[in-house]
Amino acid sequence: MVIAIDGPAASGKGTLARRLAAYYGLPHLDTGLLYRAVGAIVLAQGRLQDEAAAVEAARTLDVAALDPDTLRTAELGEAASVVAARGGVRAALLDLQHRFAAQPGGAVLDGRDIGTVICPKAQAKLFVTATPEVRAERRHRELIGRGEDIAYAAVLADIRKRDERDSARAAAPLVQADDAVLLDTSALDIAQAFEAALTIVEARRRGS
């Protein structure tokens, strides 16, 4: 069984993906980390706007070396959104994601183009969202908890900018797949969101 979870930044899709993967005993891939890692590489090189450098970073990316804790900063979130808009970067990472999804037994993948591009035939598709204000509040708490000194207003502005860039990009824009179920987590806590997501997946498993 392949579960595809898409949605904008800080919607809760990553948390739900991890919980569903644990529940079903499936491997999980946060595809956003791939783009954050590419962004980190080109930022360190001072070449964030250099598409060739980003493509090369994507082609040589060592997935085993990814460190989620160091990649979840506000700066790398912005860098990820920049490099993810480049078609060459997405193409370089496409095969890696396909191979992950094709593992025996299935997998859970979350990102922004899983249900539309990476796994269009996934058995269960969710599009997880929340209002920009709620998502900014969540991300702000996360960043403050990691020791970053950043204002809520700056986080909200970044969320809105990333939403616009992700939705408007030519390469695999953020859109809800026609057969994905919309899950708005604005008024839900983690436990409630997981129960709602599990209900959706179980309904798809039963073919309803």
Automatic annotation (TrEMBL):
Gene name, Swiss-Prot/TrEMBL: cmk
InterPro entries in the cross-refs: Cytidylate_kin, Cytidylate_kinase_dom, P-loop_NTPase
EC number(s) given by UniProt: 2.7.4.25
Single Gene Ontology BP annotation: pyrimidine nucleotide metabolic process
Cited Pfam families: Cytidylate_kin
Domain of life: Bacteria
GO cellular component, one term: cytoplasm
Main location: cytoplasm
Protein name stated in the entry: Cytidylate kinase
This protein's record includes keyword Transferase: yes
Matches recorded under SUPFAM superfamilies: P-loop containing nucleoside triphosphate hydrolases
